[in-house]
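seq:
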Amino acid sequence: MTDKTFNVLFLCTGNSARSIIAEAILNREGRGKFKAYSAGSHPKGEVHPFTIKLLKGLNHDTSFARSKNWDEFAVPGAPQMDFVFTVCDSAAAEACPVWPGQPMTAHWGLPDPAAAEGTDVERHLAFSETYRMLYHRISIFVSLPMASLDKLALQKRLDQIGAMEGSTTAEGKVA
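struct:
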């Protein structure tokens, strides 16, 4: 099981900021052990320009970045997911497609940086904070001893990661 590459899908409503950021982080930090994807229930159709600027500034390849519908991952021939994480509260509350293979799921909700108001500096800061919190969660996730955790213990750890600093409640408020 340790040689397995785990497929991970990050879901958000618009697939323009948080889920794209998470995809970029995991694809770099997962070092071949994980392959990340992202999608949205109602994709915006484009990645937020602040997302692209942030990722490029942190030396992430952004050629993968496109806003896409989660239906792409629920059709025959799509990669089979091992994990599905919602990173926004509205996607967590929606009826998700049935994912083949019954992946493990968790809610890792964070405030939407695309909804941040204020000056461009303040808005860029919101994106940076989102990156920081996702990076922290994903760093813990990739270091989990997947082969030695049973499903229940792994689910508990995924839920704990989702409750870390900056997590949002079902009402979209920071916990």
